[in-house]
Amino acid sequence: MSDFLLELRCEEIPARMQLKASDDLARLFAEELGKAGLKPAAIDSFVTPRRLALIARDLPLETAAVSEEFKGPRTSAPAQALEGFLRKTGLTQDQLEDRDGVWFAVVNKPGRATADVLAQAVPAVVRAFPWPKSMRWGTASQTTESLRWVRPLQGIIALLGGEVVDIEIDGIVAGRETVGHRFHSTGPVSIDGADDYVEKLRAAYVIACHQERQAIIAAKADEAAAAHGYSVIEDQGLVAENAGLTEWPVPLLGDFDPAFLEVPPEVIQLTLRINQKYFVLRDADGKLAPAFICTANIEAKDGGAAIVTGNRKVLAARLSDARFFWEQDRKIALADQAKKLERITFHEKLGTVADKVERVAKLARWLVEEDIVKGADADQAEQAARLAKADLVTEMVGEFPELQGVMGGYYARAEGLPDAIADAIRDHYKPVGQGDDVPTAPVTVAVSLADKLDTLVGFFGIEQGPTGSKDPFALRRAALSVLRLLDRNGLRLKLKQAHAFALSDHVYRHVFLNTKALADVDAQTLAKFGLDASKVTDVEWQAANLGRPEIKSFVSAFAASDVPFLDFFADRLKVQQKEAGVRHDLIDAVFALGGEDDLVRLLARVKALQSFVATDDGANLLAGYKRAANILKKEVIDSAIAPAAPSEADEIALAQALDAAEPLAATAVQDERFEDAMAALASLRAPIDAFFETVTVNDSDPAKRSARLALLARVRNAVHTVADFSKITG
Amino acid sequence: MAEGKVLSFQDLILTLHAYWGKQGCVILQPLDMEVGAGTFHPATTLRSLGPNAWNAAYVQPSRRPTDGRYGENPNRLQHYYQYQVIMKPSPANLQDLYLGSLKEIGIDPLVHDIRFVEDDWESPTLGAWGLGWEVWCDGMEVTQFTYFQQMGGFDCKPVAGELTYGLERLAMYIQGVDSVYDLKFNDAGVTYGDVFLENERQMSKWNFEVADTEKLFRWFKDCRAEYDQCIANGVPLAAFEQAIKASHTFNLLQARGVISVQERASYMGQVRDMAKGSCEKWMEVNGWAA
User: Based on the domain organization, do A124 and A245 belong to the same domain?
Assistant: First the structure.
């Protein structure tokens, strides 16, 4: 058994790609070895900015011999079939075995030297390596067929035991030499084998293990902060990024002018983190400290004094810019900034951001006035919506796009706007991702919901819904955010109605803007097309009469978009609920009833159903329902035959049970008492079981048969007041 | 920083010239036209195409009208200098050569923290992209380091390595000054401000306030027409100069704030078409296959 060391040395690999590349290398390498029947006991991975390496433990020096058996054609088959089989197996006819008239071949593959396997496996892995972006370089790049790597590949170490494996990739010949740290080490570093790789590199100021560098950075940053009475604001991503930018990490602390702390902390944090990759510190009171920690890649001769001085200067220049933006932006009222949104296209077919803002303002007001979002002031909701996007044209958001919303919130407060409005501006993009907080402040909820609904209605209206893996407008995320807003706040929003409202405004604006451009229709003619959905047909008529077919087709596409819009929500709901442990077949069962577009009610129904089918009563009712449904599927009720009155005891009992359960279930559903509806259905379980036990449905008397089928249909329909049980699997 | 003698602005340039000249680069003088970056110099744009080896270094005055601040911002200028090195094919030791140049201008890598941080380059205007880094010195970007993969929409065969040093920034760092205008231009008491401050004031005013937009629009159109003529007559070098002029005229129009968002895309598209068209014709007259 021997260990195999592979190092692929290149120019600086982007930090963000290193860990994935390290995993990919181990995985692809294991796959290639697996094809030859080799399986290392373990694979240790290493990655630094300048090298990707692995050690595969305990490889045999030869692969095991394998014997494979192939079944061939019948001995009676035509000659061509036999020839083909011989070609495939590489054998001659006398080596085949005749087993009951069928040719069999046994192919013995002798073991191969592991070094040979590696010599094939490594180039295969290198050539097919899944870098997110790769490039060509140097003289070899005369042709576009030359080797691609993330940055120029400089050297390869391939040592099995202590021996160099014979590998050559595009002129790079594998050996045992590498290099140490770019500045702390000169000349080649010669490696004996897997055992001395890590330590030889360490002696040359390279810590090969990414996780070890991370640990050093975290520990030394903490130490440096503590020495000044500060603590580091934890940021694992930044630790990993710095580990990806250094081979010999040395965290150093520097300070900045406390006067900069007047700028919002989010701005300072971003300046430090994103632009400079510095750690942000907190003082003993938990406030942002006027200091930073940068991670150098050298043990500097002067202890890092020059590095800290340099970094302080760069940071001071950046913070000065930030403070300048903060001062400039506050000189202009958000309402005035918002006017500039006319210059930004939201989408070619959906107008400018200013158009969107108008629509969102109307929709937010509507959500409040319809009492869908409770407890909000309609004027505040409208005003917040009108100002929500204004910060997009501020200098600060131009510099730090990730501060959209946050800066608007600050600027609104600085203008003296009410907290409800400032908070809504700040938080209206939320919830952004899975783990993000869901707003609950009523004004915020109204604006956030309106913003997302407008986006969804708009893009579905212009037939730009997501397809396959493509979702350029992030509509899946928007829909999920809507679902979470509704769910968290228990909002009773009928999606169909919201769609109709948002759509009418989209259409109105589009037609208005287009026809205004024609200059021969005055605004007043169009203004009579109000904003409710029933007027869409009028707009259609208007569009047609204006002789603008593209407007007509725009309007019809919008009008027809309710179905894909609602289907999309159903899908998103299933995905979301699946993750929350809700069975998607149960969601289907409720959706299949049709007409349910109130997601809060739908979920309540699904949850009641899920609890119910988990009970004995539920499971048995489901079984009874399925039996009834199967019979009904096969049998046709002849309406010409008058059903006989119930004759048998269990038939009568079932009819009576239905008489009692049907109204109970219907009323319970009406009142949204879904557990009660389930309980009412549960009362059918015993009578159904008894019915199937003693009553023959397919009675020779057509009148009796007809009556019993009708009874089963009643059972099915009663169950359907709650959910379409036929969609329930298992 | 003060290891040994601190270089003046002009000595910084002379040192880089001497260094890259020794590496086999042709030391060129700047392109005598207004460009936004050293990459626009045909010595980079056009010479990065085709199979021939090409090594050159030059200073390129770069004009970015919208960056003008009337001489009032210590870091932002509408006219500044880039030091540009282009080596084709990219030598295997280009990183080492580059680090050698830093040592030459007085940056000790065991005192200062030099880092190669991912930064991929793309110029839609030139139909070009490449992979590389921004080089950091103590947290400050001092150089853009790029391996060109495509230019004018054509694969680079072979790939060229491009280095772009921000000279003012680098000099400010070396000299330890906070304002560009305080830079020592030479060792005889002349500052950068002595040479360029008034220039920044007047040119900012012209760029933002004075330039006659009607003429600018006309120039743009004229460039476009002249470009078509150049292409038709098989002189891509001349065609490319018209693309450069159009690009700068467009930048001036931007500074004057007379181009709407919608028009902007259209103007940029025209410049891109001219740049790519010039590259295409250049490939064609040289008989190089795409």
Answer: no
